[in-house]
Amino acid sequence: MHMKSFLTIILIFFFSYFQAQESNNAIGFYTSGLEHYNKQNYTEAIDEYTKAIEINPDFAEAFFQRGCAKHNAEDYKGAIEDFNTSINLQPKNELFYKQRASTKTMLKDYNGAISDCDEAISIKYDYDKAYALRGILKIEMGEISGCKDLEKAGEYGYHNAPIFLKKYCMK
């Protein structure tokens, strides 16, 4: 009986060690992806994030960053897919919704982008960039209520709000 317990402990240690190693490898690929991304090497960044995701398929930030790299590489549909996955993994992350809104804007899905901004704001009521994007989108769609969103964006610290208010709302 004592030998069985000892073997069980060894097996648990062995599997825990390799799971930790896999996690460290995923973080290593993720970090390498960030380095490529910061150098605007989006293809290499996507490759590194993909390796991190292959090791850890629940790595929401890796999906998010890969989505950002795809967005910058103008693969908007691929970016949306990655943002969807990151949101499924972490549904209360306002940044994920706001970035998906930005990508939906590139695909001219303005209603979808506004809906994502709404969700980001429902998670973080003072999310200045979500208010700004939603305001500009509403104005572009002919809704004057977008000016109120731009005002809110300014109240919450969005430094470009006065520029947009002047451009869109003070005529």
Question: What's the structural blueprint in terms of helices and strands?
Answer:
Blueprint (H helix, E strand, L loop, with lengths): L1 H37 L3 H14 L4 H13 L3 H14 L4 H13 L3 H14 L4 H13 L5 H10 L5 H9 L2
Helix pairs in contact: 1-2, 1-3, 2-3, 3-4, 4-5, 5-6, 5-7, 6-7, 7-8, 8-9
Describe the protein's architecture and organization.
- By secondary structure, the protein is mainly α.
- The chain has a domain at 2-91: Serine Threonine Protein Phosphatase 5, Tetratricopeptide repeat.
- Helices cover 80% and strands 0% of the residues.
- It is built from nine helices and no strands.
- The chain has helices at residues 2-38, 42-55, 60-72, 76-89, 94-106, 110-123, 128-140, 146-155, 161-169.
- Helix 5 packs parallel to helix 7 (128-140), helix 6 (110-123) packs antiparallel against helix 7 and helix 8 (146-155) runs antiparallel to helix 9 (161-169).
- The longest helix is centred in the first third of the chain and has 37 residues, at 2-38.
- The N and C termini lie far apart (85 Å).
Range of helix content: over 70%
Structural class: mainly alpha
**Architecture of the domain at 2-91 in CATH?**
Alpha Horseshoe
Terminal CA distance reads 85 Å
CATH class wording of the domain at 2-91: Mainly Alpha
What's the total number of strands? 0
What number is the mean pLDDT?
89
Number of helices: 9
What is the CATH third-level topology name of the domain at 2-91?
Serine Threonine Protein Phosphatase 5, Tetratricopeptide repeat
CATH superfamily of the domain at 2-91: Tetratricopeptide repeat domain
Query: What's the gyration radius in Å?
Result: 21 Å
Major beta-sheet overview: none
